[in-house]
């Protein structure tokens, strides 16, 4: 190792050490605490369920809802998830949630112990719905149930909702390659989850994934262009659809090892974002996630065509490491990765998952991250992810857990209709659209605990306003929780010290 390389590495290590001291990286959390958080992070999805609830439902304050979804269009679209604090079923974030839940089980399911079946049930609640949406009508994918503008004018629990349950779709005439390819990714990833425990279901998932992907690829276009104000500004496809096509193909290849999908990736990758360096991973932008996923192929096989994915994955990791030549992330004074003023924790949970998954690949197949002339080990990635996870669970300047129901102090006013309005069991009489706002504006804690929900989180000064009116910070979402399930599973098996 040359003198310059040693100097760069020592500088990087000093920065990491300083951050460890300043941000309190030494953690008081035990594997038991992480196990408790894991169980709750999965239970949250039961609070987001739409449809007929099963006898195994554990969040008892919820009831059946949306039982006629799709019926006026002569399709069965009962089930699935409400994405956040409202009562709309948005297909793009729901599919991404399902992909990330599946990836969590694929990478870290062996560490989930008694929670793995609950995690698989959360996956299946998503895929059962996505299968319906993908197979109800040939040449069509149903991508949304509920008129969002009308829904957002009401504050009512899902069991009472009386706003229009309009159904929206993409088709050969009105394409939606982004939502379709993400749906294909979700079905393909889930097929891996169920390949041993339910092979016939797994086979149905992957067969449908291939058909939906072909539809996405053949009839190209962004679903935002087809559906406009119905999906925007709620879940516009800001990044376009190229990233989802590459992501979907990558997941089908991982599920099947079908060489035709690898050929597709090699042939189309350069035009679908493979050459881009991008620094966030979310329901909208899949480029970084795809590169990490494909880097596994390079580390396993050392195939030259995969090498660029490793380079770009390293660039992403380096962007997160203080002191690295490529560092460009922003952290709060308390050590939280900060990307956006609205729902920032979605980026924290997705980044933590990618750090841990990449660390796993490096540990399994050998290798490290090259940041300029410095080398960053898997251990450093785990330490950075741990800091983010611990911050969310309460090791932060506010000394507040941002997971509802976890720790001694957590938010009590989540921006969430069902949680904030008396349950149908305690208040059987209907609570109307406008009547519900008395609970929205109330200073009282939510009567129903949305166990495990991770909220949007604090601002760039580590400040958090526990108010339903502050939806940017206080609203939960399925895609915040989904990658966190995998991250928590990882730490359940780790020693208490970082």
From TrEMBL:
Pfam families in the record:
Glyco_hydro_9
Catalyzed reactions per annotation: Endohydrolysis of (1->4)-beta-D-glucosidic linkages in cellulose, lichenin and cereal beta-D-glucans
What UniProt keywords are attached to this protein's entry? Carbohydrate metabolism, Cellulose degradation, Glycosidase, Hydrolase, Polysaccharide degradation, Signal
Which top EC class applies here? Answer: hydrolase
**Keyword set includes S-adenosyl-L-methionine:** no
Glycoside hydrolase family domain: from which residue to which, for each copy? 34-488
Cited InterPro entries: 6-hairpin_glycosidase_sf, 6hp_glycosidase-like_sf, Glyco_hydro_9, Glyco_hydro_9_Asp/Glu_AS, Glyco_hydro_9_His_AS
Q: Where is the active site?
A: 415, 466, 475
Highest taxon above the source species: Eukaryota
| GO MF annotation: an example | cellulase activity
- Give the record's GO biological process terms: cellulose catabolic process
Residues annotated as signal peptide: 1-28
Q: What is its EC number?
A: 3.2.1.4
Asked if the Swiss-Prot or TrEMBL record annotates the protein with the keyword Hydrolase, the reply is yes
By sequence similarity, the record places it as follows:
Belongs to the glycosyl hydrolase 9 (cellulase E) family.
Full protein name: Endoglucanase
Organism of derivation: Stephania cephalantha
């Amino acid at each position: 190792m040359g003198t310059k390389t040693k100097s760069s590495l020592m500088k990087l290590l000093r920065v990491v050490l300083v951050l460890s001291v300043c941000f309190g990286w030494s953690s008081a959390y035990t594997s038991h605490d992480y196990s408790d958080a894991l169980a709750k992070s999965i239970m949250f999805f039961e609070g987001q369920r739409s449809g007929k609830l099963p006898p195994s439902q554990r969040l008892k304050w919820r009831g059946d809802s949306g039982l006629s979804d799709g019926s006026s269009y002569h399709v069965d679209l009962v089930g699935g998830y409400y994405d956040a604090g409202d009562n709309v079923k948005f297909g793009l974030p729901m599919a991404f949630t399902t992909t990330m839940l599946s990836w969590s089980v694929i990478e870290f399911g062996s560490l989930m112990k008694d929670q793995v079946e609950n995690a698989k049930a959360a996956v299946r609640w998503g895929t059962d719905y996505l299968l319906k949406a993908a197979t109800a009508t040939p040449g069509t994918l149903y991508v949304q149930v509920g008129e969002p503008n009308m829904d957002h004018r009401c504050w009512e629990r899902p069991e009472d909702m009386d706003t229009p349950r309009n159904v929206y779709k993409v088709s050969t005439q009105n394409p939606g390659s982004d939502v379709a390819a993400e749906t294909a990714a979700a079905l393909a990833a889930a097929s891996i989850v169920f390949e041993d425990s339910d092979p016939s279901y797994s086979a149905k998932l992957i067969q449908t994934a291939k058909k939906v992907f072909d539809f996405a690829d053949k009839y190209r276009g962004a679903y935002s262009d087809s559906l406009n104000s119905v999906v925007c500004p709620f879940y516009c496809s800001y990044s376009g659809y190229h990233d989802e096509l590459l992501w979907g193909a990558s997941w089908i290849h991982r599920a099947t090892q079908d060489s035709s999908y690898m050929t597709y990736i090699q042939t189309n990758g350069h035009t679908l974002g493979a050459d881009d360096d991008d620094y966030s991973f979310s329901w909208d932008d899949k480029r970084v996630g795809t590169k990490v996923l494909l880097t596994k192929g390079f580390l396993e096989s050392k195939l030259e065509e995969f090498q660029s994915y490793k380079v770009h994955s390293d660039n992403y990791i380096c962007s997160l490491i203080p002191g690295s030549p490529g560092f460009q992330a922003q952290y709060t004074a308390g050590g939280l990765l900060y990307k956006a003023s609205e729902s920032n924790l979605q980026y924290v949970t997705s980044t933590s998952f990618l750090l841990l998954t990449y660390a796993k690949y490096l540990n399994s197949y050998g290798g490290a991250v090259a940041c300029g002339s410095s080398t960053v080990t898997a251990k450093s990635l785990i330490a950075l992810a741990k800091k983010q996870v611990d911050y969310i669970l309460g090791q932060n300047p506010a000394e507040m857990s941002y997971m509802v129901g976890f720790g001694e102090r957590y938010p009590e006013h989540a921006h969430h209709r069902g949680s904030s309005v008396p349950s149908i069991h305690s208040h059987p009489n209907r609570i109307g659209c406008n009547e519900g706002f008395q609970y929205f504006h109330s200073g009282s804690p939510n009567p129903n605990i949305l166990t495990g929900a991770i909220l949007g989180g604090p601002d760039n000064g580590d400040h958090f306003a526990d108010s339903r009116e502050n939806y940017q910070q206080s609203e939960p979402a399925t895609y915040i929780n989904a990658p966190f399930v995998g991250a928590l599973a990882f730490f359940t098996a780790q020693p208490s010290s970082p």
